[in-house]
Design brief:
By secondary structure, the protein is of the alpha/beta class. It has 15 helices and 20 strands. The structure holds xanthosine-5'-monophosphate (XMP).
Length: about 525
């Protein structure tokens, strides 16, 4: 638990996929909060934490199952406002004398729904139901539902499948909603959080500057006088992580830049130069191209490739760590989306989409402990923190680059020839995007080289070369994405340039898949 002079909000996590989004909404309101898994939240914990308000998250379980998660009694007795979300609502109703029933087809709801207000507009729904339709779009995702509200509660909003969509015990300041106000699909959801924290009396004085101080304190606490090595990739995440660590522990930090041979054109020189010269950091340039490409030879399965890269990363770090006196920690710029897409919560519905190399690939028994100071943040928040730390704008604005590098942009088997072609094509594509002034409008843009050769004609001759796919997406946090609507003129010009300037490619396609159903990377 953290010692902070700010008012604190406690989020009790019952295992929802989107609990972090609640924290994010609260950070946007400059409210300090901490997420704690329900197993750790005992009566004593609540007393010691002394929250100014509590939120019960959603979760995959059913309150009717014996042994299903519960908040401690002290939560209800703390005398502070509580907001229950989805499972959090059900648990609150169940604990306080209402009824919850198992979902049947008619009452289970997944997806968009519309909530209408009832009579009376207490502060909790201030700013809701304001447009001409008088209703609000919300995102539902529940099997069970409340069938009888607890004594003292009243209904503030209903939807066709959830007669108790918004409920409140105004005397005790307990609020409970069936839907998820924290997700984008509840467009006005942030307003409910705002109303809740204002009613709870939060001053809203928790800023990214404060977050930085907090993180620096946490890093010092965790690391003590030991040395840390930081996995530098040159992307925004590891750059911000390194800058933060450098500020926290100075000389105790050594950055290791692993050149796995899967980097973009000139990337190694640029990154190492930038960190050594601009940031005055200790950087080791580990050229391990042969090791990585050697082990990847002949491998075409995406998960196998990711696992190999993840394993080698750790091996390499350990090797370098052993050479640094007293290095006990490994720092990584793991972000929240990396965590949520790799980890399943107690067998809940959150499935593994991809094993991100910096999470899933970690061996159980690693000789180094992890420091992951960005684990709670989303990409745009990391950028804000980077600005706060004074990193150059050109670095903060860089598109994300995945740890496994070009390996996941080279579907199927990786060969040196393909990598060489891919690097050149990617450089032309990014150059085009910059020339057209589009770089900052795009979340991420890259080329993927396809495992297929196609027939073409150049001059008077036949060609039989690789096809490639251009990818460009817009996104807020990498969790969802839309393809970027380039003009046909831009696409045509870029295709011509790639085919003319890059030997080995004779066909260019543009990937117009959004996420979901696609992912941003090809593997
Ligand atoms: P996907 O392809 O999962 O990508 O839609 C979402 C975002 O994550 C990046 N990405 C990774 N980043 N290690 C990373 O550090 C990884 O293993 C990894 N895989 C994907 C991807 O570039 C995009 O920004």
């Amino acid at each position: 638990m953290t010692d902070t002079s700010h008012d604190r909000l406690l989020i009790i996590d019952f295992g929802s996929q989107v609990t972090q989004l609640i924290a994010r909404r609260l950070r946007e309101l400059n409210v300090y909060c901490e997420i704690h898994p329900y197993q750790n939240v005992t009566d004593a914990f609540v007393t010691e934490f002394a929250p100014k308000a509590i939120i019960f998250s959603g979760g995959p379980d059913s309150v009717m199952r014996e042994g299903s998660p519960r908040p401690p009694k002290a939560a209800y007795e703390a005398g502070v406002p509580i907001l229950g979300i989805c499972y959090g609502q059900q648990v609150m109703m169940h604990d306080l004398g209402g009824k919850v029933e198992a979902g049947e087809h008619a009452t289970a709801e997944f997806g968009r729904a519309y909530v209408k207000p009832t009579e009376g507009r207490p502060d909790f729904v201030k700013g809701w139901f304001m447009d001409e339709t008088g209703q609000e779009q919300v995102w539902m995702s529940h099997g069970d539902h409340v069938s009888e509200i607890a004594p003292g509660f009243e209904v503030l909003g209903t939807s066709p499948g959830a007669p108790f969509a918004i409920t409140a015990d105004l005397a005790r300041n307990f609020y409970a909603v069936q839907f998820h106000p924290e997700v984008h699909h509840t467009p006005n959801g942030a307003t409910l959080y705002e109303n809740f924290v204002r009613m709870a009396g939060f001053a809203g004085d928790w800023t990214m500057g404060a977050y930085r101080e907090e993180m620096i304190r946490k890093i010092r606490e965790q690391v003590g006088d030991k040395n840390v090595i930081c996995a530098l990739s040159g992307g925004v995440d590891s750059s911000v992580a390194a800058a933060l660590l450098h500020e926290a522990i100075g000389e105790q930090l050594t950055c290791v830049f692993v050149d796995h041979g899967l980097l973009r054109l000139n990337e190694a020189e640029e990154v190492v130069g930038m960190f050594r010269d601009n940031m005055n950091l200790k950087v080791i340039h580990a050229d391990e191209t042969e090791l990585f490409l050697g082990e990847l030879e002949g491998q075409s399965d995406p998960e196998t490739k990711r696992k190999i890269i993840g394993r080698l990363f750790i091996d390499v770090f350990q090797k370098y760590a052993n050479e640094i006196d007293g290095a006990e920690f490994l720092a990584q710029g793991t972000l929240y989306p990396d965590v949520i897409e790799s980890v399943s919560f107690s067998g809940g519905p959150s499935v593994t989409i991809k094993s991100h190399h910096n999470v899933g690939g970690l061996p159980e028994k690693m000789g180094l402990k992890l420091v992951e100071p960005l684990r709670e943040l989303f990409k745009d928040e990391v950028r804000e923190l980077g600005r706060e730390l004074g990193l150059p704008a050109s670095f903060i604005g860089r598109h994300p680059f995945p740890g496994p590098g070009l390996a996941i942009r080279c579907p199927g088997e990786i060969t040196r020839e393909k990598l060489e072609i891919l690097r050149k094509a990617d450089a032309v594509y990014i150059d085009q995007i910059r020339k057209h002034g589009l770089y900052d409008d795009i979340w991420q843009a890259f080329v993927a080289i396809l495992p297929v050769r196609t027939v073409g004609v150049m001059g008077d001759g036949r060609t039989y070369d690789f096809a490639c796919a251009l990818r460009a997406v817009t996104s807020v946090d990498g969790m969802t994405a839309d393809y970027y609507p380039f003009s046909h003129e831009f696409l045509g010009e870029t295709a011509t340039r790639i085919i003319n300037e890059v030997k080995g490619i004779n066909r260019v396609t543009y990937d117009i898949t959004s996420k979901p159903p696609g992912t941003i990377e090809w593997e």
